[in-house]
Amino acid sequence: MRRFSTSNLDSLGTQFSIPITADQDGYLGRECPVQGCLGYFKITPGTGVKGPAPCYCPYCGHKGESNTFFTQEQIEYARSVVLRKVTDAIHEDLRSLEFEHKPQGLFGIGFSLKVKASAPLPIRYYREKQLETEVVCDSCTLHYAIYGVFGWCPDCGVHNSLQILVKNLELARKELALAVTADPELANHLIGDALENAVSAFDGFGRKICMQKSADIHFQNIAGARRRVQDRFGFDFADSLTADEWDCAGRVFQKRHLLAHKMGVIDEDYLQKANDKSAVLGRKISLNHGEVESAISIVEAMGQRLFAGVLPAIP
Ligand SMILES: [Zn+2]
Ligand SMILES: [Zn+2]
Q: Which ligand has the minimum distance to the alpha carbon of residue 139?
């Protein structure tokens, strides 16, 4: 009598370690375990914080053990690999029961048992998804990718909004640099565009970080934003500016408003708010290289202050 042996199955043990590796671009997919979020993002293992570190969801800021951030697809893949190993082992063990008794004598009956190989269980391979923004964290050098633009660094938990603002302001400065050598018409366009980009970068940045604290504040109207931030957060993001700098910021933001909505033609609203002595109703505003350059630096200073005041740490 053959004895049934489970040696193949036993040799697998009771714990499995299935490696989840990075894709061809070096990215490893991650998924936030919080039910209301389940945000998908990717990181490049080996960049960022050295040694064991918790993981932060870039979207909701949830902090947890790194091994709680596997994606559904990675889990299904690992499960399928385990199932395959187990079924293969069981199959091998069953083969130990195989026998064949030839018929004996004239009226003998023969018996046999053959274990037939059935189709092996499929491995659920997966592919990481394409994301929209790739970021290298300024604080810990982690390479990561997210949907949208703004998020918390998955390794060190620093919000990237200030980093993105600074990068956009750098682009606006490059536009200004191009304006120096461009013909006058193009130069005007580049200067106006640099201003528009700086203001919308500041607006997007400011809104985003205030939203993290459930405050809906817009930053295109800089004087209004200053008041609202003071009311809501109890600090003044322009407190490091001189009176002249604040004046410049207010005027240049008003100029941007005219350029974006009034074809740059001066209206009553501008005359009242911009404190611009050279302005004449119905004429086009003038915008020069120097004042946009100053405005970009002022925006950067306000951005630093706003960030430190609203979002000093992880939620
Ligand atoms: Zn999340
Ligand atoms: Zn980081």
A: 2
Nearest ligand to the CA atom of 158: 2
Nearest-Å Rg of the Cα atoms of the chain is: 32
Q: What is the pTM of this model?
A: 0.78
Tell me the residues surrounding ligand 1 (ion) with CB < 5 Å.
32, 34, 37, 39, 57, 59-60, 62
Q: In this structure, which amino acid lies at residue 33?
A: P
Q: How much of the chain, in percent, has pLDDT values that exceed 90?
A: 74
Cα(146) to centroid of ligand 1, in Å?
12
pLDDT tens across 271-294, in order? 999 989 899 999 999 999 999 999
pLDDT band of 13, cuts 50, 70, 90:
confident
CA torsion 269-270-276-279 (nearest 10°) is -100
Closest CA to 208 of 197, 219, 199: 219
Among candidate residues 190, 207, 160, 165, the one with its CA nearest the CA of residue 289: 190
Ligand showing the shortest atom-to-Cα distance for residue 159: 2
* Percent of the chain residues past pLDDT 70, beyond the cut: 98
Asked if the model's pLDDT at residue 91 lies above 90, the reply is: no
C-alpha torsion 203→206→212→213, nearest 10: -120
- Ligand nearest the Cα of residue 155 is 2
**Ligand 2 center–CA 159 separation, angstroms:** 8
Judged by its nearest atom, the ligand closest to the C-alpha of residue 58 is 1
Mean pLDDT of 57-65: 95
CA of 135 to the centre of ligand 2 (A): 10
